[in-house]
UniProtKB/TrEMBL annotation:
Cross-referenced PANTHER family: EG:EG0003.4 PROTEIN-RELATED, UDP GLUCURONOSYLTRANSFERASE FAMILY 1 MEMBER A1
Record-listed E.C. numbers: 2.4.1.17
TM annotation in the entry: none
Entry's Gene Ontology cellular component terms: membrane
Similarity section: Belongs to the UDP-glycosyltransferase family.
Gene: LOC129392842
GO terms for MF: glucuronosyltransferase activity
UniProt xrefs under Pfam families: UDPGT (PF00201)
Repeat found in the keyword field: no
Protein name: glucuronosyltransferase
Keywords: Glycoprotein, Glycosyltransferase, Membrane, Signal, Transferase, Transmembrane, Transmembrane helix
Stretch list, region Disordered: 304-357
Record's subcellular location: Membrane
Composition skew (Low complexity), residue ranges: 304-330
Amino acid sequence: MSLGLWLPGQVLRGLLLCLCVGRWAEAGKVLVVPMEGSHWLSMREAVRELHARGHQAVVLSPEVNMHIKAEDFFTMKTYAIPYTQDEFDYIVTGKTHLLFERIHFLTLFLETMASLKNVSLVFQRSCEQLFYTKDLIRHLNASSFDVVLTDPVYPCGAVLAKYLSIPAVFFLRSIPCDLDIEGTACPNPFSYVPRLLTMNSDHMTFFQRVKNVLYPLTLKYICQVSFTPYARIASDLLHREVSLVDIFGSASIWLFRGDFVMDYPRPIMPNMVFIGGINCANRKPLSRVCIDFSLNLGGVCAAAAGGRRRSGPSGPRSPAPRRSMGRSAAEQAAAPVAGLGQRKSPPGGSGMAACRT
């Protein structure tokens, strides 16, 4: 079985935004601001495919990180942060063992919150250090990037796109506290859209709906710690009051690594594209072992790992066709971005006008 990642070609067009039509389709410049950890491992394959199609990708990362390393299919730009590699690794991953220990819930909660504060502070200072590196910011501003590809779980990329007035594409699974819903101005009815950690379905009793309303309130503290500092950073840069909703609302396209096979149905907006399966391994067809029996038993065909088995004189039958994960998502991704590249952002604009039709 192959473990190679299969990346739908048409989904990649959604990442190009203003490069999809006309003369810009020849080659584009993409500034990538990834989130650390497994978030980057998913985004890396998209960047690889962008390079294969002739586009220039520049990945922006702090010098000290876990997985974001230089590779031959993108140019890497780094900046210094006030942490050593050992300090970074300890703060980010040093408390993961708590998830596997049997301790009191209150102790686990307090330890987790303390660890969350430390991790959030690391990424916050990393973002601040990026904007303090004036030479790098001037270089990025002069490079005339066509689009910023970023994971909004780390809002620094969204702040940078807003500061440089470049259209942004968000590549994500979700954002806590329904910030993705607020950023897209999408309806979010509590009556049938289950909230995170509630274990509710989309058919709820009255008390389950009450629970659905109350549970998100407990996450507000987490978002206050993790995301609020980026609103302050954006306000200082733009010299005006900027909220988190303003930051996330500046995205031109939202590429969600999910679909309604795994998630409950909910309202969506035209610039929300679901690409579930984009980072799933593509399996080769299963091999079949066919054994011919005598004594008038006909043929028996057994497909390894769950294929159909057919006995009788009619002979072997092929395994049932399997759905190719991500292909339907690729077809859906092409539609909303087909006409997005026909005009660029006006000077000083946020880039939204260039990509909304």
